[in-house]
Amino acid sequence: MITIESKLPAQGVTIFSVMSAMAQRLNALNLSQGFPDFPAPPALLNALSDATQQGFNQYAPGDGLMHLREQLVQLFAHRDKLNIDPHTEVTITPGATIGIFSAIQAVVHADDEVIIFDPSYDSYAPSVKLVGAHPIHIALETPHFTVDWNRVAAAINHKTRMIIVNTPHNPTGAVWGREDWLNLIELIRDKNIIVLSDEVYEHLIFDGRQHLSALSFPELRERSFVVGSFGKTFHVTGWKTGYCIAAPALMQVFRQIYQFANFCGVTPVQMALANFMAEHPEHIAELAHFYQAKRDRFNAGLSHSRFELIPSAGTYFQNLDYSAIRPDLKDVEMCQLLAEQHKIVAIPVSVFYQKPPENLRLLRFCFAKQDSTLDQAAEILSAV
Prior knowledge:
One of its GO terms (molecular function) is kynurenine-oxoglutarate transaminase activity. This is Aminotransferase. Residues 29-380 form the Aminotransferase class I/classII large domain. The chain is globular. The strands form 3 sheets. A 7-stranded mixed β-sheet has the order 2-8-7-6-5-3-4, with helices on both faces. It has a 3-stranded antiparallel β-sheet with strand order 9-12-11. A two-stranded parallel ribbon has the order 1-10. Helices cover 39% and strands 14% of the residues. The chain has 384 residues and is of the alpha/beta class. The chain has a domain at 67-266: Aspartate Aminotransferase, domain 2 (3-Layer(aba) Sandwich), CATH 3.40.640.
């Protein structure tokens, strides 16, 4: 008999799989997982067909097609006034999650510590644990999910190797401002600490706010990995294409790991994205307005409900507080009640914590949906 010892013994099926399965079983409206229920831009789909017909069906370079890397560099040059080298500082990855994983594996060693702000994306901590390091969870301050910088200062020690930032933030929609970045810079200025900045919702930012990338701060330029997602930006989450940008020294060690985690991304998808970006710059320019209109429509539909909300500042998620409805129920229980009795499915925010606050009564809903879906969801929730 063989003995198998799991490296992640406490890791079960993700909440996203659980809630989507529940939605399917109950034939319920699914606003849990973060993906659009509307089609991708027709020109992008045509670009994919064209790429396959034109022969872009074999292995891409391991670091990604240069055409797509160059389009990405132009985006950062336009928005952040950054001069990024597409050869030495950009790698195209099959999704953002593998970029996050590879960055952690590249620079974090056994017994190091990595600071994670909770609630947090569920891949961060397992990626840290798999290298033998220790995730240090710091809960954000409710209700606006801000950072308590005194707690961060107290948590930093000689073992701290990385701090993971996520802005715009999933699952809360919070967005870091300049003061947040300056506070971080001050704390790590003279320390050997790497920043991993998860910026997959970089273009989904509302109410006139500006997305500030880690790379836009000179003090962080040489010590930051920035990870992004084309799937979020172009409504094609199933295409699983993302990127990592970092200074040459960091990118070198990133690629040393990445080349063995995944040989290359999907070639025709990369070519389609690159051609679409070159020919349709208006897509990204209009994206914030597009999603803000959906957020506003969903929230307006809830104006007479018993749920309370703070409008999301970014991403395509809106949290709803149900304290006035069933304060006696934990959020997982409230999700089950909504699914079984009202045929609508959300994500309980507590699952994004190592130790959720006792009084947390928040549910996350995805508003990357057709207007008819949002109207139906608001009608259901207003009757709760």
